[in-house]
Amino acid sequence: MSAHVTAEIAGQPDCWRRAAALAGPLADRLPRPGERVAVVGCGTSYLIARAYAALRESLGAGETDAFPASERTPLGRGYDRIVALTRSGTTTEVADLLAGAAGRLPTLVLTGVPDSPAGRLADQVVDLSFADERSVVQTRFATTALQLLRAGLGVDLAPSVADAELALYEPLPAHWERRVQFTFLGTGWTVGLADEAALKLREVARVWTESYAAMEYRHGPISISDRTSLVWCIGPVPAGLREEVESTGALFTADAVDPVAALVRAQRLAVSLAARRGLNPDRPRHVSRSVILAGAFRPTAAEAARILRA
């Protein structure tokens, strides 16, 4: 079992409590009601950005769009602010976008390494170093960033924290691990969480995973489901969905917990599947802590040490 990612998954409730406590003091830095906001990130951070963008709009807090940081679309639009999520602060696409926004759009960075290139390029920084990770795989940093942003929208995190503690305590159903195909579904802001759950299983355990908006799953993707499948709906379950899934022979599950806490269970499943396959969940193949592209900026020696630390 991994020494790092397992401990980092288990540490999420404490990190979320700290995020809840920070929301008030950081209110002047977080997006304000009515602001038109672009949220950017790469990989897991981009999927979390999508979840936050959909949630913020659904709560009437203001127009919010999410983009991969590699897409420079926000620079050509009239946003009031760019919010960037980057654990290491060294990812090339994020740094390049922030550099391009300098003097054009206000920028805010949520990062685990505030004295990184992204931290230096941003107008404002939220220091989430307490949620930084040693594993290549993102778990607690991503969820803590989302929880802080949720708290900034007025969401009470106490029920989510309690649900996460339950998700960590309850054993995973043994028959889940015998499935060979996994599909995650979401609705509204939880579509991004479904995509993140699927990404975790792909990168950590190398299993066949897909993810969809729940209603879109019925329009073709359902054809992949059979008795080897687990179909997991994160968040509200549309009427009739369970019956349709079960008619394929697939196992259907949905969590009666906060959606971010449900993501904790998916993280645990990914690590468990990796262990069964003899894989190191801390170091997925072909994946690095930070993607630094050729011809772009180079981190300092201290920044490189943070990226490579184990």
Automatic annotation (TrEMBL):
Keywords: Hydrolase, Repeat. Residues 26-159 form the SIS domain. It comes from the Bacteria. It is an enzyme of class 3 (hydrolase). Its EC number is 3.5.-.-. Pfam families: SIS. InterPro entries: GlmS/AgaS_SIS (IPR035466), GlmS/FrlB_SIS (IPR035490), SIS_dom (IPR001347), SIS_dom_sf (IPR046348). GO terms for molecular function: hydrolase activity. PANTHER family: GLUCOSAMINE--FRUCTOSE-6-PHOSPHATE AMINOTRANSFERASE, ISOMERIZING (PTHR10937). This is SIS domain-containing protein. It comes from Streptomyces omiyaensis.
